[in-house]
Amino acid sequence: MSTLLLLCLEFFKTGLFAAGGGLATIPFLVEMGANHPDWFSPEELANMIAVSESTPGPLGVNMATYVGYTVSGVLGSILVTFFLILPSIIIVMIIAKFLGKYMDNKYVQWVFSGLRPAVTGLIAAAGYSVLKLALFTGNEFTGFLNIFAFIDWRALVLFAAIFVASLLPKIKKLHPVVFIAIGAVIGIVIGL
Hints:
Blueprint: H1 3-17, H2 26-35, H3 42-54, H4 59-102, H5 106-135, H6 147-150, H7 153-167, H8 169-172, H9 176-190
Helix pairs in contact: 1-4, 3-4, 7-9
């Protein structure tokens, strides 16, 4: 199977099961990177997440475009992005056809009530994946003697400082882009 076709199928699967938005795609991308390390490394995934969160557009679409481009050029970026959003287009068209008729049905309401916690769980799993990629080096934790090899201390200190600063009343009013820019500049300066 060609690499481009496999890439399109992987992102189609990601789009199919990534209910809840771009952050829900992260667990799928982590698995994809592990299964296909020639497409992107865990470090590249962390960088893609940082850039995608800092730029306009949905995270999943930005990442699909980037991975498609790095693996198969412009054609790859277009096709992979299309295959990521194709399941959403299909599902929305099907739901739109039937939802108007069945929206007041108690079973439909139960399904939507059940989807909320599931989506919350997917987003929490994505947050955990991002935290793990950002703050840990990937080395195995074998005990407190190797804790400095297990945790990226510079990233942890930067995370803690920006988190605490974002809780201060006067600083809390700043736009989130300011925090992203400050984090990016400090990350560049300290070599993260």
